[in-house]
């Protein structure tokens, strides 16, 4: 929703309220379909314009990050930092006007919040996310009831810092950790981490309830460094860690 609002502000002469109204539900549905390929929130804005121009969901799923996103950024002379600011401003205004309606479209996966809360209480837990830290904290606190301190939330949105660098820093911070788990719903991120020599001590898990596709889960299952897990299996892993 915020992506559509931001896109309408970015291109007011094209995405007018009158033009968008009859295609609103279509666009929102397609945005949900292509969500698995988004690395950072600002990309939602670009995706809306591409979908508006006729790009199919299937094509976007197969060609977004390394092809269509940079092509669109160049074609429309877009600046990453400016889009980050725009996307953030739209969300800030929405939150200030009506926090409940901003929270409403977001869903906490059943059973996950309790597990994360337990991990936070018993282990050294950190959130490494592409979402801006402020919004992550709002979702965790207001929807999930998980009070993760801001200093334990690492956001890539502004810094652009790869998650692998954050993992490396956390490993240095906790050199005596018996086990280090990286739980992610983005397969491409896990595949990058799996190849890095300085991240070989991390256990890598792809959750089967997140923003990934059946094809990606099948691909992950063939990678010896990555384990695909369900909520029940996630619980079993955390239970084993908490007993150590």
In words, what does this structure look like?
This protein is mainly α and 244 residues long. Helix content is 58%, strand content 8%. It has helices spanning 2-10, 17-20, 24-34, 43-52, 57-75, 80-97, 99-103, 112-122, 133-144, 156-159, 163-173, 187-194, 214-221, 231-242, and strands at residues 127-129, 153-155, 181-184, 203-207, 226-229. The strands form 2 sheets. It has a 3-stranded parallel β-sheet with strand order 3-4-5. Strands 1-2 form a two-stranded parallel ribbon. β4 (203-207), α13 and β5 (226-229) form a beta-alpha-beta unit. α1 crosses α4 (43-52), α3 crosses α4 (43-52) and α3 (24-34) packs across α5 (57-75). The N and C termini lie far apart (43 Å). The model has no long low-confidence stretch (mean pLDDT 92).
């Amino acid at each position: 929703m915020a992506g559509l609002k931001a896109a309408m502000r970015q291109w007011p002469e094209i995405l007018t309220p009158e033009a968008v109204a009859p295609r609103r539900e279509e666009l929102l549905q397609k945005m949900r379909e292509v969500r698995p390929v988004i690395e950072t929130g600002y990309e939602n804005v670009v995706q809306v314009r591409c979908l508006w121009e006729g790009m199919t969901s299937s094509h976007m799923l197969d060609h977004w990050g390394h092809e269509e996103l940079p092509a669109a950024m160049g074609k429309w002379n877009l600046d990453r930092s400016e889009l980050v600011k725009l996307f953030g401003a739209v969300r800030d205004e929405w939150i200030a006007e009506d926090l409940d309606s901003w929270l409403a479209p977001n869903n906490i996966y059943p059973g996950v919040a309790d597990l994360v809360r337990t991990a936070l209480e018993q282990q050294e837990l950190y959130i490494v996310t592409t979402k801006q830290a402020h919004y992550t904290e709002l979702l965790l606190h207001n929807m999930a009831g998980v009070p993760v301190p801001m200093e334990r939330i690492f956001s890539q949105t502004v810094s652009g810092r790869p998650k692998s660098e954050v993992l490396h820093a956390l490993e240095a911070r906790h050199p005596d950790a018996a086990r280090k788990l990286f739980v992610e719903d983005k397969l491409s991120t896990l595949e990058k981490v799996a190849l890095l020599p300085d991240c070989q001590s991390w256990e890598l898990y792809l959750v089967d309830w997140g923003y990934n596709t059946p094809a990606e889960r099948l691909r992950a299952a063939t990678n010896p460094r990555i384990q695909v897990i369900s909520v029940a299996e996630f619980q079993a892993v955390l239970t084993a860690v908490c007993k150590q």
